[in-house]
Amino acid sequence: MDSTVLGCLAEYLFCVECLKRDINVSMPLSPGSVYDVVVESKGVLLKVQVKSYQKGHPNNMDSIKINFTSKRKYNTEEVDFFAFYVKKFNGFFIFRNNGERRSIRLSLTNKNSNFFNNFEFD
Fold first, then answer.
1. Tally of structural domains, the chain
2. How large a percentage of the chain has pLDDT more than 90?
3. Which of 79, 97, 108, 111 could disulfide-pair with 49, CB 3.0 to 4.6 Å?
4. Which residue segment(s) compose the domain that 107 sits in?
5. Distance CA 114, CA 112 (A)
6. For residue 58, is it within any domain?
7. What are phi and psi of 115, to 5 degrees?
């Protein structure tokens, strides 16, 4: 699957998952927006940058290192949360933007597993 198509699919999948959980969600009309989605959590609007990852890995590899600020650094005023769709895991790792992260190791078995499909936005 083309990476642009996967990115678009990830955005829509994220919106669907939010709707399944009764989370209000909106998308900006401008394709040049820094964030991809706005969610309403506990009466607060939060800006979410949705990313996707599909590169192949050996079946025994259970973690993926993601570098996500190679093109730009997302400051905390622009983006509140990141939602990474990992095709291999068929789900999202959702974590707050601390303004400093440049990479993260995503796994269902490491300390970051608590971010997997965590739509709490805390």
1. 1
2. 50
3. 79
4. 3-115
5. 5
6. yes
7. -85, -10
CATH number at residue 69: 3.40.1350.10
* Tokens describing residue 34: 């820094």
Q: Is residue 32 part of a domain?
A: yes
Q: Decide: helix, strand or coil at residue 9.
A: helix
Task: Give the end-to-end CA distance of the chain in Å, rounded to a whole number.
Answer: 32
> Interior CA angle at 14 toward 13 and 16, to 5°?
65
**Confidence (pTM):** 0.86
Q: What is the pLDDT of residues 81-106, one digit of tens each?
A: 999 998 888 999 999 998 877 778 88
* Residue 121 placed within a domain: no
Q: Are strands 81-86 and 44-53 parallel, antiparallel or unpaired?
A: parallel
CA distance 9 to 12: 5
Closest CA to 101 of 120, 84, 121: 84
Question: Which tokens go with 67?
Answer: 């570098």
Structure tokens given for 64 = 């993926």
